[in-house]
Amino acid sequence: MIFNNFGQALRVSVGPYVLLIVVSVSVFWSLGLLPLLAQMGADQVTPEQLLASDGPIIVAILVTVVFAVFVAAWVAVSWHRYILLEEYSGILPTVSGRPIWPYVGVSMQLGFLIAILGLIIGMIMGLVLIPFSAAGPAGLYLGGAIVGIVMIAILSLMWFRMGVALPATAVGKPIKLSEAWRATSKINGTIIGIVLIIAVVSFIAGVATQGLYQIHPVIGVATDLFVQWVNLMVGVSILTTLYGHVIEGRPLID
Protein backbone atom coordinates (compact mmCIF):
# COMPACT_ATOMS: atom_id res chain seq x y z
CA MET A 1 0.00 0.00 0.00
CA ILE A 2 2.79 2.42 0.89
CA PHE A 3 5.47 1.61 -1.65
CA ASN A 4 3.06 1.12 -4.56
CA ASN A 5 1.80 4.63 -3.76
CA PHE A 6 5.10 6.04 -2.50
CA GLY A 7 4.76 9.44 -4.16
CA GLN A 8 1.38 10.02 -2.55
CA ALA A 9 2.65 8.70 0.79
CA LEU A 10 5.35 11.38 0.69
CA ARG A 11 2.85 14.06 -0.33
CA VAL A 12 0.52 13.41 2.60
CA SER A 13 3.35 13.24 5.14
CA VAL A 14 6.53 15.12 4.25
CA GLY A 15 5.00 18.61 4.13
CA PRO A 16 3.22 18.30 7.50
CA TYR A 17 6.32 16.81 9.13
CA VAL A 18 8.54 19.59 7.74
CA LEU A 19 6.11 22.09 9.26
CA LEU A 20 6.29 20.20 12.56
CA ILE A 21 10.09 20.37 12.57
CA VAL A 22 10.11 24.08 11.66
CA VAL A 23 7.53 24.94 14.34
CA SER A 24 9.26 22.84 17.02
CA VAL A 25 12.72 24.29 16.33
CA SER A 26 11.27 27.82 16.15
CA VAL A 27 9.49 27.45 19.49
CA PHE A 28 12.56 26.08 21.28
CA TRP A 29 14.83 28.66 19.61
CA SER A 30 12.58 31.60 20.51
CA LEU A 31 12.65 30.52 24.16
CA GLY A 32 16.40 29.93 24.18
CA LEU A 33 16.01 26.19 24.61
CA LEU A 34 17.43 24.92 21.33
CA PRO A 35 20.42 23.10 22.96
CA LEU A 36 17.95 21.15 25.10
CA LEU A 37 16.08 19.87 22.03
CA ALA A 38 18.85 17.51 20.89
CA GLN A 39 19.52 16.45 24.48
CA MET A 40 15.84 15.61 25.00
CA GLY A 41 15.87 13.44 21.88
CA ALA A 42 18.84 11.53 23.25
CA ASP A 43 17.33 11.28 26.76
CA GLN A 44 20.28 13.25 28.14
CA VAL A 45 18.37 16.03 29.91
CA THR A 46 18.74 15.98 33.69
CA PRO A 47 15.93 16.93 36.10
CA GLU A 48 18.06 19.92 37.17
CA GLN A 49 18.13 21.24 33.59
CA LEU A 50 14.36 20.91 33.27
CA LEU A 51 13.81 22.64 36.61
CA ALA A 52 16.17 25.45 35.60
CA SER A 53 14.14 26.03 32.43
CA ASP A 54 10.85 25.59 34.29
CA GLY A 55 8.16 27.72 32.61
CA PRO A 56 9.75 28.06 29.13
CA ILE A 57 10.34 24.32 28.73
CA ILE A 58 6.73 23.56 29.72
CA VAL A 59 5.44 26.06 27.14
CA ALA A 60 7.76 24.70 24.43
CA ILE A 61 6.83 21.07 25.09
CA LEU A 62 3.10 21.85 25.27
CA VAL A 63 3.09 23.75 21.97
CA THR A 64 5.18 21.08 20.26
CA VAL A 65 3.08 18.18 21.55
CA VAL A 66 -0.23 19.80 20.54
CA PHE A 67 1.07 20.55 17.05
CA ALA A 68 2.62 17.06 16.76
CA VAL A 69 -0.74 15.48 17.60
CA PHE A 70 -2.45 17.64 15.00
CA VAL A 71 0.15 16.77 12.34
CA ALA A 72 -0.10 13.03 13.04
CA ALA A 73 -3.91 13.21 12.71
CA TRP A 74 -3.60 15.39 9.60
CA VAL A 75 -1.34 12.82 7.91
CA ALA A 76 -3.45 9.87 9.04
CA VAL A 77 -6.75 11.36 7.88
CA SER A 78 -5.22 12.28 4.51
CA TRP A 79 -3.84 8.75 4.00
CA HIS A 80 -7.08 7.07 5.06
CA ARG A 81 -9.04 9.24 2.64
CA TYR A 82 -6.57 8.67 -0.19
CA ILE A 83 -6.79 4.89 0.10
CA LEU A 84 -10.52 4.64 0.82
CA LEU A 85 -11.90 7.61 -1.14
CA GLU A 86 -9.08 8.18 -3.68
CA GLU A 87 -8.58 11.78 -2.57
CA TYR A 88 -5.22 12.96 -3.88
CA SER A 89 -3.02 15.50 -2.05
CA GLY A 90 -0.99 18.40 -3.35
CA ILE A 91 2.27 19.51 -1.76
CA LEU A 92 0.31 19.86 1.47
CA PRO A 93 -2.78 17.75 2.29
CA THR A 94 -6.06 19.62 2.57
CA VAL A 95 -7.08 20.72 6.06
CA SER A 96 -10.36 22.49 5.37
CA GLY A 97 -13.39 20.23 5.69
CA ARG A 98 -11.38 17.28 6.98
CA PRO A 99 -12.36 15.67 10.34
CA ILE A 100 -8.88 16.13 11.83
CA TRP A 101 -9.92 17.24 15.33
CA PRO A 102 -12.65 14.57 15.59
CA TYR A 103 -9.92 12.10 14.63
CA VAL A 104 -7.76 13.48 17.45
CA GLY A 105 -10.71 13.07 19.83
CA VAL A 106 -11.19 9.39 18.95
CA SER A 107 -7.43 8.83 19.16
CA MET A 108 -7.37 10.33 22.65
CA GLN A 109 -10.27 8.14 23.78
CA LEU A 110 -8.51 5.08 22.45
CA GLY A 111 -5.14 6.20 23.83
CA PHE A 112 -6.58 6.79 27.30
CA LEU A 113 -8.17 3.34 27.32
CA ILE A 114 -4.94 1.71 26.11
CA ALA A 115 -2.97 3.61 28.80
CA ILE A 116 -5.24 2.30 31.57
CA LEU A 117 -4.99 -1.23 30.24
CA GLY A 118 -1.23 -0.84 29.86
CA LEU A 119 -0.89 0.20 33.49
CA ILE A 120 -2.79 -2.87 34.64
CA ILE A 121 -0.88 -5.21 32.34
CA GLY A 122 2.40 -3.59 33.36
CA MET A 123 1.75 -4.33 37.03
CA ILE A 124 1.00 -7.96 36.20
CA MET A 125 4.05 -8.26 33.94
CA GLY A 126 6.23 -6.76 36.67
CA LEU A 127 5.66 -9.93 38.69
CA VAL A 128 7.04 -11.94 35.76
CA LEU A 129 10.38 -10.14 36.07
CA ILE A 130 10.97 -11.36 39.64
CA PRO A 131 12.41 -14.79 38.64
CA PHE A 132 14.61 -13.13 36.00
CA SER A 133 16.12 -10.72 38.55
CA ALA A 134 17.65 -13.68 40.37
CA ALA A 135 19.81 -14.37 37.31
CA GLY A 136 21.56 -11.00 37.57
CA PRO A 137 21.68 -8.08 35.10
CA ALA A 138 21.68 -10.33 32.02
CA GLY A 139 18.59 -12.20 33.18
CA LEU A 140 16.85 -8.98 34.11
CA TYR A 141 17.61 -7.49 30.68
CA LEU A 142 16.33 -10.64 28.93
CA GLY A 143 13.19 -10.62 31.05
CA GLY A 144 12.65 -6.93 30.36
CA ALA A 145 12.96 -7.53 26.62
CA ILE A 146 10.45 -10.38 26.72
CA VAL A 147 8.01 -8.43 28.88
CA GLY A 148 8.40 -5.37 26.64
CA ILE A 149 7.62 -7.33 23.48
CA VAL A 150 4.62 -9.07 25.08
CA MET A 151 3.23 -5.76 26.36
CA ILE A 152 3.63 -4.09 22.96
CA ALA A 153 1.91 -7.08 21.32
CA ILE A 154 -1.07 -7.06 23.72
CA LEU A 155 -1.60 -3.30 23.58
CA SER A 156 -1.11 -3.24 19.79
CA LEU A 157 -3.75 -5.95 19.44
CA MET A 158 -6.20 -3.83 21.41
CA TRP A 159 -5.23 -0.74 19.43
CA PHE A 160 -5.79 -2.35 16.03
CA ARG A 161 -9.00 -4.09 17.13
CA MET A 162 -10.61 -0.84 18.32
CA GLY A 163 -8.61 1.47 16.05
CA VAL A 164 -10.83 0.63 13.08
CA ALA A 165 -12.94 3.47 14.47
CA LEU A 166 -10.23 5.90 13.31
CA PRO A 167 -10.51 5.42 9.53
CA ALA A 168 -14.28 5.37 10.01
CA THR A 169 -14.00 8.86 11.51
CA ALA A 170 -11.62 9.96 8.75
CA VAL A 171 -14.12 9.12 5.99
CA GLY A 172 -17.03 10.72 7.85
CA LYS A 173 -18.74 7.49 8.93
CA PRO A 174 -17.85 7.29 12.66
CA ILE A 175 -18.45 4.15 14.69
CA LYS A 176 -18.03 3.43 18.41
CA LEU A 177 -14.93 1.71 19.78
CA SER A 178 -17.13 -1.17 20.94
CA GLU A 179 -18.50 -1.57 17.40
CA ALA A 180 -14.96 -1.63 16.03
CA TRP A 181 -13.98 -4.30 18.57
CA ARG A 182 -16.90 -6.53 17.55
CA ALA A 183 -16.29 -5.99 13.84
CA THR A 184 -12.66 -7.13 14.05
CA SER A 185 -13.36 -10.24 16.15
CA LYS A 186 -13.60 -12.43 13.03
CA ILE A 187 -9.99 -11.68 12.01
CA ASN A 188 -8.48 -11.71 15.50
CA GLY A 189 -5.87 -14.32 14.52
CA THR A 190 -4.67 -12.25 11.57
CA ILE A 191 -4.30 -9.16 13.76
CA ILE A 192 -2.35 -11.15 16.39
CA GLY A 193 0.11 -12.22 13.70
CA ILE A 194 0.53 -8.61 12.56
CA VAL A 195 1.08 -7.20 16.04
CA LEU A 196 3.65 -9.86 16.97
CA ILE A 197 5.74 -8.82 13.98
CA ILE A 198 5.28 -5.13 14.84
CA ALA A 199 6.20 -5.73 18.49
CA VAL A 200 9.54 -7.36 17.61
CA VAL A 201 10.43 -4.86 14.89
CA SER A 202 9.47 -1.85 17.06
CA PHE A 203 11.59 -3.11 19.96
CA ILE A 204 14.63 -3.63 17.71
CA ALA A 205 14.14 -0.24 16.02
CA GLY A 206 13.90 1.51 19.40
CA VAL A 207 17.12 -0.04 20.68
CA ALA A 208 18.95 0.72 17.42
CA THR A 209 17.78 4.35 17.39
CA GLN A 210 19.00 4.96 20.94
CA GLY A 211 22.36 3.52 19.96
CA LEU A 212 22.62 5.96 17.03
CA TYR A 213 21.93 8.89 19.37
CA GLN A 214 25.10 7.90 21.23
CA ILE A 215 27.09 8.08 17.98
CA HIS A 216 25.79 11.56 17.08
CA PRO A 217 22.55 13.41 17.99
CA VAL A 218 21.91 14.42 14.36
CA ILE A 219 22.09 10.81 13.18
CA GLY A 220 19.82 9.78 16.04
CA VAL A 221 17.24 12.48 15.28
CA ALA A 222 17.23 11.69 11.54
CA THR A 223 16.83 7.96 12.18
CA ASP A 224 14.19 8.57 14.84
CA LEU A 225 12.15 10.71 12.43
CA PHE A 226 12.37 8.05 9.72
CA VAL A 227 11.36 5.27 12.13
CA GLN A 228 8.43 7.37 13.38
CA TRP A 229 7.35 8.05 9.79
CA VAL A 230 7.45 4.34 8.92
CA ASN A 231 5.59 3.44 12.14
CA LEU A 232 2.90 6.02 11.45
CA MET A 233 2.38 5.09 7.79
CA VAL A 234 2.42 1.34 8.43
CA GLY A 235 0.05 1.67 11.39
CA VAL A 236 -2.36 3.87 9.47
CA SER A 237 -2.18 1.55 6.45
CA ILE A 238 -3.01 -1.48 8.60
CA LEU A 239 -6.02 0.31 10.11
CA THR A 240 -7.13 1.37 6.64
CA THR A 241 -6.88 -2.21 5.38
CA LEU A 242 -8.74 -3.62 8.39
CA TYR A 243 -11.50 -1.02 8.06
CA GLY A 244 -11.88 -1.70 4.35
CA HIS A 245 -12.11 -5.44 5.03
CA VAL A 246 -14.37 -5.69 8.10
CA ILE A 247 -16.60 -2.64 7.46
CA GLU A 248 -16.65 -2.22 3.67
CA GLY A 249 -16.13 -5.89 2.75
CA ARG A 250 -12.96 -5.36 0.73
CA PRO A 251 -10.48 -8.26 0.37
CA LEU A 252 -7.50 -8.27 2.75
CA ILE A 253 -5.16 -8.77 -0.19
CA ASP A 254 -6.04 -6.86 -3.35
Which characteristics define this entry?
10 helices; 254 residues; mainly alpha
Describe this structure as you would to a colleague.
- There is one protein chain.
- The protein has 254 residues and is an all-alpha fold.
- It has one domain (3-246).
- 80% of the residues lie in helices and 0% in strands.
- The chain is built from 10 helices and no strands.
- It has helices at residues 6-30, 34-41, 47-53, 55-85, 100-133, 136-162, 165-170, 177-183, 188-215, 217-246.
- The radius of gyration is 20 Å and the shape is globular.
- The chain starts with 5 loop residues before the first helix and ends in an 8-residue tail after the last helix.
State the gist of this model.
The protein is mainly alpha-helical and 254 residues long. 80% of the residues lie in helices and 0% in strands.
Task: Specify the oligomeric state.
Answer: single chain
Report helical residue fraction.
over 70%
Number of helices: 10
SS elements, strand count:
0
Order of helices and strands: HHHHHHHHHH
Mean pLDDT: 84
> Which of globular, elongated, flat, extended, rod-shaped describes the shape?
globular
End-to-end Cα distance, whole Å, is: 10 Å
Rg (C-alpha, Å): 20 Å
How many domains is the backbone divided into?
Answer: 1
Going by helix content, strand content and strand pairing, the class is mainly alpha
Which stretches are poorly predicted, pLDDT < 50 over at least 5 residues? none
Q: Please give the largest β-sheet.
A: none
Query: What is the beta-strand fraction?
Result: under 5%
